[in-house]
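Worked example 3 (structure in, sequence out).
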């Protein structure tokens, strides 16, 4: 730390050259409290607003909170980093400049403008940020593409995290000034974009598979109907083995089966054969 300070900056490695570096004007507490406070506000606001949307489960409302938070983080926090290459030199820095000067204590590749890091953050800010906000709308409006969109964005976030950690390892794994910044910033702050997207991706995958299974079952029933009256007994046996669990309760009547579209299963239920 002392060696780094002799170079005019508080980052590691000590030999990192940052000409024109301007020290932080905000304290760590001021930066963290402001960021965490804004994050809590976003969660509470979206939670309250989502409560006015009919037929949304608590899980969907929590997902709306997450996607709003992560979307705004990608756009408003990571976006300025990508498009402000001289943020560490500014004599009158804004809050976002200070955020990245503070975070760089846990990963100095940001203040050093590492090309791989800038590229990953650029893709995240430009593509995943707007897509995350679109996911909020898709969930609230119960759009058919909701789970496909969420699954795609989750894959993008997981891929970005893999590139982020793997490149850090390959480049020497020495970009933090101490254990606190390693665990709190480098590991802790990024871990949310690993385990949360994994859980959402698994859920969306299951919902999408259920929809395709429902479509397949519907086509099978339509094929049975074409057999005609001579195969009525076989049709009855198949119909007894088909159970639909959803908002209409357990149904086995053919008329009710035809009324339920595959998209309904994404939101309300699943098909069980046997």
């Amino acid at each position: 730390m002392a060696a780094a300070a002799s170079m005019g900056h508080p980052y590691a490695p000590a030999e990192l050259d940052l000409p024109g570096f301007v020290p932080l004007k905000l304290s760590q507490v001021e930066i963290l409290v402001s960021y965490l406070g804004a994050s809590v506000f976003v969660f509470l606001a979206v939670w309250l607003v989502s409560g006015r949307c009919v037929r949304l489960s608590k899980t969907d409302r929590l997902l709306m909170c997450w996607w709003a938070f992560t979307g705004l983080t990608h756009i408003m926090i990571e976006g300025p980093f990508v498009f402000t290459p001289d943020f560490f030199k500014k004599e009158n820095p804004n809050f976002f400049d200070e955020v990245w000067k503070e975070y760089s204590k846990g990963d100095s590749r940001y203040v050093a403008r590492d090309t791989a890091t800038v590229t990953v953050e650029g893709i995240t800010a430009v593509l995943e940020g707007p897509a995350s906000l679109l996911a909020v709308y898709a969930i609230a409006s119960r759009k058919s593409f909701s789970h496909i969109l969420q699954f795609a964005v989750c894959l993008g976030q997981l891929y970005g995290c893999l590139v982020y950690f793997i490149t850090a390892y390959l480049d020497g794994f020495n970009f933090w000034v101490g254990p606190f910044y390693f665990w709190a910033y480098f590991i802790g702050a990024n871990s949310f974009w690993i385990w949360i997207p994994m859980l959402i991706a698994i859920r969306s995958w299951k919902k999408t598979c259920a929809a395709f299974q429902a479509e397949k079952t519907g086509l099978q029933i339509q094929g049975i109907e074409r057999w005609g009256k001579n195969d009525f007994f076989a049709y009855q046996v198949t119909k007894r083995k088909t159970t639909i669990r959803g908002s209409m309760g357990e149904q086995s009547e053919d008329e009710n089966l035809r009324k339920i579209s595959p998209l309904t299963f994404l939101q309300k239920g699943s098909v069980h054969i046997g």
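Notes: The CA atoms of residues 87 and 93 lie 7 Å apart. The first helix runs from residue 2 to 6.
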